[in-house]
Design a protein that fits this description.
Strand content: 5-15%
Number of domains: 3
Distance between the termini: 111 Å
Shape: globular
């Protein structure tokens, strides 16, 4: 049998890659050089099947290319030295970046506006008592007050994690930027974190030699945070229990913080008029927060059958109820400083209500409105220090 073949040769100008054969853009590569005048001989055997076919590129570099190759090789060696020296630096940056990213994810997970609210309660109540009893100030007392925040924040963090674990499907509609929905944190990691947080708060509560009442309150708070979100109890699915738990958390936290403050300062627990005012004021404000938090969740709650006052009244009516109740609340003045402060806060509330109406009560502006109410919450505890 006679086998014939035809070998074809073609010349073309191309770029050559010295060390990185997978580089797709030699012009921009550190490991490549440009040699446009060097021809390539491309050979192929057309008559053979593909498995017998041989294709090769022959580069005719010529004598004049030696200097270019030598200079390029020096550049390549320099680049290689830089690349070899970079892994440890990149590794350090990678670890630091991961830690920062995890911290940022945890911050988002625990609902920053609630954390700020709890800190404002503790600082407002503690600050007022210390302001009126300056002779009791000491750095040791401040250190103890700082650690007293740990159980409060632990309770909030645990409740937030439970809520987001069991509301993943709803949050895909209402709050797609939350860590568990966006994939920044896995469900398994969230569970482990919730256990660590709950135990940390309990250990700190005991180490602070808190009264048995405070230990009981902390344990009950952890149970309430669990029962609020976890089936089959899931108190949040019932409007009455949802409303009751939200208000109780604000009032209970204020009462607990005040009791801890007087105990730390060695003062008797006295139900003073100023404290009576702030409890009454924050009870009403807690009610508005309970209503306002569901305005942005109407779409997701309705889809998954979660009944709330907001889903029944609608976003527009619920917004007017919240704003109206808060404006009435600001009419309750305790001292001259509150006349000016409440007038300013009421004006800001009216402006934000108007902005939400112009945005047609969309989900994102509704969340901003809800977080604005938390700003009013922080402001009230700041004013409380001076009444």
């Amino acid at each position: 049998m006679e086998v014939s073949s035809v070998c074809t040769f073609s010349f073309q100008t191309n770029y050559h890659t010295l060390l990185n054969p997978h580089n797709k853009n030699p012009k921009n590569s550190l490991l490549s050089y440009q040699h446009p005048k060097t021809p390539i001989i491309k050979s192929s055997y057309d008559n053979f099947p593909s498995k017998y076919c041989l294709t090769k590129n022959f580069h005719l570099l010529g004598l004049n290319s030696h200097n270019r190759i030598s200079s390029q090789s020096r550049s390549i060696r320099a680049g290689s030295d830089q690349i070899e020296g970079s892994p440890h630096h990149e590794s350090d940056n990678s670890i630091a970046t991961k830690i920062l990213n995890f911290g940022h994810t945890c911050w988002k997970l625990q609902r920053p506006y609630v954390v700020k609210g709890m800190i404002s309660i503790a600082c407002g109540l503690f600050g007022r008592e210390l302001f009126n009893n300056r002779h009791l100030f000491s750095w040791g007392l401040m250190w103890k007050a700082f650690f007293a925040l740990v159980p409060i924040l632990s309770f909030n963090f645990f409740a937030a994690i439970m809520n987001q674990i069991y509301d993943v499907d709803i949050d895909r509609i209402n709050k797609p930027d939350l860590p568990l929905v966006s994939g920044e944190m896995s469900i398994e990691t969230a569970w482990i974190l919730s256990i660590i947080v709950a135990l940390t708060g309990l250990i700190v509560t005991i180490k602070l030699k808190s009264a048995p009442l405070f230990v009981f309150i902390y344990i009950f708070g952890i149970f309430a945070g669990f029962a609020y979100s976890v089936p089959p109890i899931r108190w949040k699915q019932y409007p009455f229990t949802n409303f009751l738990i939200t208000i109780s958390s604000h009032v209970g936290l204020a009462f607990t913080s005040y009791s801890a403050t007087t105990s730390a300062l060695g003062l008797p627990f006295v139900w003073r008029p100023a404290f009576s005012f702030i409890i009454a004021f924050m009870t009403v404000m807690g009610m508005t927060i309970a209503f306002a938090k569901d305005i942005s969740d109407i779409e997701g709650d309705a889809k998954y059958g979660v009944s709330t006052v907001a889903t029944k009244l609608g976003a527009r009516n619920m917004t007017f109820v919240v704003s109206g109740v808060l404006l009435l609340n600001y009419l309750v003045f305790k001292s001259n400083i509150m006349i000016l402060s409440h007038a300013i806060l009421a004006f800001c509330l009216i402006f934000q209500t108007r902005e939400l109406a112009l945005a047609n009560y969309a989900s994102a502006p509704s969340r901003q409105f809800f977080e604005f109410i938390w700003l009013l919450y922080y402001a009230e505890y700041f004013v409380y220090v001076f009444i």
